[in-house]
Design goal:
Layout (H helix, E strand, L loop, with lengths): L7 H12 L20 E4 L8 H12 L7 E5 L7 H20 L3 E6 L22 E3 L5 E6 L4 H15 L5 E4 L22 H11 L5 H8 L3 H29 L4 E6 L6 H15 L3 E5 L9 H18 L5 E4 L2 E3 L10 H13 L5 E4 L8 H26 L3 E6 L5 H8 L11 E5 L2 H4 L8 H14 L5 E3 L5 E7 L5 E8 L8 E6 L6 E6 L5 E3 L2 E3 L2 E6 L6 E8 L17
Parallel strand pairs: 1-2, 1-11, 2-3, 3-6, 6-7, 7-8, 8-9, 10-11, 12-13
Antiparallel strand pairs: 4-5, 12-15, 14-17, 15-16, 16-22, 17-21, 18-19, 18-22, 20-21
Helix pairs in contact: 2-11, 3-4, 4-7, 7-8, 9-10, 10-11
Length: about 575
């Protein structure tokens, strides 16, 4: 994401300083205050730039809703079309990128032209250039359209594509999550991970000093876990080499372009994420981004979308020690982007929760001109985003250099942790400052069948057990509470999400770590910031939020009094 002011040496220095402070080793991948990069991205696909006429419509929809995003990810398209198609696509994207720069939006690029998602997602016409071996499973099934990552002609094609698109000089390059060692159906159905074609078997055999047939290697792995682990590492190295090929071309032709990797959140993704992220950081020479995601694309059960953010936070904790990762950007999307698939509000809420729990940007894949026209998206998606995006960006910026604070239950599945967290007790699904573990007795509470007084009693008991939490609810409230503090324990932000389908309020809180003379400002999603009356008693500050709308939220920021407008008592918004 262009505009980054954090070089690799500065990043490492910040990480070392942060890790020396209690509770902050897990937040060492967060850029320090003042880091500049986009926070709210719209992801587009190739159809948006298929013709100049179509782009004019999409551009008009975005331009008519200023503030709906500060970055747009264009797409190389999927499949293996002729390079002339990519040249024409890149020229259209370059023109569209110039249009966005004129209205202050960073143009970036999703590099989808990698291995392929699965045979069912493309057609023969879209893969006219593929004349090399396809991804092959341990069962012997070979994909028609997905590629083996070790084929020489495939790697030449990927490099050629990278050279073509580097000319648009995107702010950031995001390699698509199709670059992975599984989920390339039908070849991967019932298969071990990795490509099992003759080339891959030969290369692995050369490294091992022993030749295997596909059947022999599969049989040998059944009784040899170490062999299976070495095969997986070999397979991960294969996809990392694809990422390196792409990154090298961009580094040579567009050295200012940042780089990132889109991926899923299962434990089996960890080795791939580590390898690709390290490859991109080493090749680009600058901090990189990660975009975890996968699933929960519909409003049928919006709570699942919030749980997805908790899953992403938990995944982040498993790779947070990676050097050089400065941007954490969740996948927030729907499929197939039809009007009925998903509302803007649910996408806003999912983004908000991810940012509260430690992410510092969001990506939204909600538009597709194959299903709806741009006028409908402009009214039902981009307009609500324009109202909410300033709050998402403000929470991300205000939370830079801080850590979420909460009680932990590492063995509890994210959906169960979410259900407990609806009590308003702050929980820690990922990294941050741990207030202590939740006991079985604590977790026996079911917010849906427990009276408000008993819920409050548990909040107070946990507060006492922790020796004073940064934020504690003092009102009946069903939803999430996520405080974030600086390295010295000062309170910076408190995010709240009302998970009821009715408004809640007034909502009273007691806060700790609020510096003397500081103001507390409420930033409602979709609304204007409001300075709240503050009642101080010792080290505790009490505030009251008038109301939080249904399935909506906002955050409190702790502000030096000098940043408030004397005329209106509101924060001088950093985004305006």
């Amino acid at each position: 994401m262009s505009g980054m002011r954090l070089n690799r040496r500065e990043f490492i220095a910040f990480a070392a300083a942060a890790s020396a402070v209690w509770g902050f080793c897990a937040e060492s991948a967060t850029p320090p205050d003042g880091a500049s990069f986009p926070r709210v991205a719209l992801r587009l696909r190739a159809p948006h730039t298929a013709t100049p006429e179509q782009w004019r419509k999409t551009h008009a929809a975005i331009a008519a809703n200023p503030g709906c995003c500060d970055e747009v990810w264009f797409s190389t398209g999927t499949g293996v079309p002729p390079l002339d198609w990519h040249r024409a696509q890149a020229a259209r994207i370059a023109a569209a990128a110039d249009d966005l720069r004129k209205i202050g939006i960073v143009p970036s690029l999703q590099f989808q032209a990698t291995l392929g998602h699965g045979d069912a997602f493309v057609t023969a016409e879209e893969c006219a250039m593929k004349d090399w071996t396809g991804w092959t499973g341990s069962t012997g099934v070979e994909d028609r359209f997905c590629s083996c990552p070790r084929q020489k002609k495939f790697l030449e094609y990927v490099r050629a594509c990278a050279r073509i698109y580097a000319g648009m000089r995107p702010g950031f390059l995001w390699i698509d999550d199709d670059l992975r060692i599984d989920n390339h159906a039908p070849a991967t159905d019932g298969s071990r991970p990795g490509c099992w074609c003759a080339t891959c078997l030969s290369d692995f055999g050369a490294a091992e000093g022993k030749a295997w047939t596909r059947t022999e290697l599969d049989a040998a792995m059944k009784g040899d876990a170490a062999l299976a682990a070495r095969w997986e590492a070999f397979s991960v190295a294969s996809i990392a080499a694809v990422a390196q090929a792409i990154a090298e071309e961009f580094r040579r032709l567009s050295p200012e372009t940042g780089m990132g990797y889109q991926h899923c959140t299962g434990d089996k993704e960890i080795s791939s994420v580590r390898a690709v992220a390290e490859t991109l950081a080493q090749t680009s020479g600058q901090p990189v981004g990660l975009r975890p995601g996968g699933g929960d694309y519909y409003d049928l059960n919006p709570a699942d979308q919030v749980v997805k953010s908790l899953r992403a936070a938990r995944f982040r904790a498993k790779v947070v020690d990676l050097d050089g990762v400065a941007i954490w950007c969740p996948e927030v999307e729907c499929w197939p982007r039809a009007y009925a698939s998903r509302s803007a509000q649910s996408a806003i809420v999912e983004s908000f929760v991810a940012i509260a729990y430690g992410f510092n940007a969001t990506s939204l894949f909600l538009l597709d001109t194959r299903y709806e026209d741009d006028a409908l998206y402009a009214r039902t998606t981009l307009r609500p985003l324009a109202a909410a995006a300033p709050v998402l960006a403000a929470l991300a910026k205000d939370s830079d250099g801080t850590a979420p604070v909460g009680f932990s239950a590492e063995s509890l599945p994210p959906d169960r942790l979410y259900r407990f967290a609806l009590s308003g007790v702050p929980v820690l699904p990922g990294v941050g400052r741990d207030l202590g573990g939740l006991t079985d007795a604590d977790l026996a509470l079911d917010v849906f069948t427990t009276g408000s007084k008993d819920i409050q009693a548990l909040r107070d008991a946990l507060d006492a057990r922790a020796g004073g939490a940064p934020a504690v609810l003092e009102s009946p409230f069903v939803g999430l509470l996520v405080p974030r503090v600086t390295a010295d324990g000062s309170l910076r932000t408190v995010a709240l999400l009302n998970t009821r389908i009715g408004a809640q309020g007034p909502v009273a809180l007691r806060l700790r770590g609020v510096p003397a003379g500081a103001a507390v400002v409420w930033h409602p999603i979709g609304g204007r910031p409001e300075a709240l009356p503050v009642v101080r008693g010792g080290d505790v500050v009490r505030v009251q939020i008038p109301e939080i709308g249904a399935w909506n939220g906002g955050f409190l920021s702790v502000e030096p009094a000098a940043t408030l407008s004397a005329a209106c008592g509101q924060r001088v918004d950093k985004l305006r």
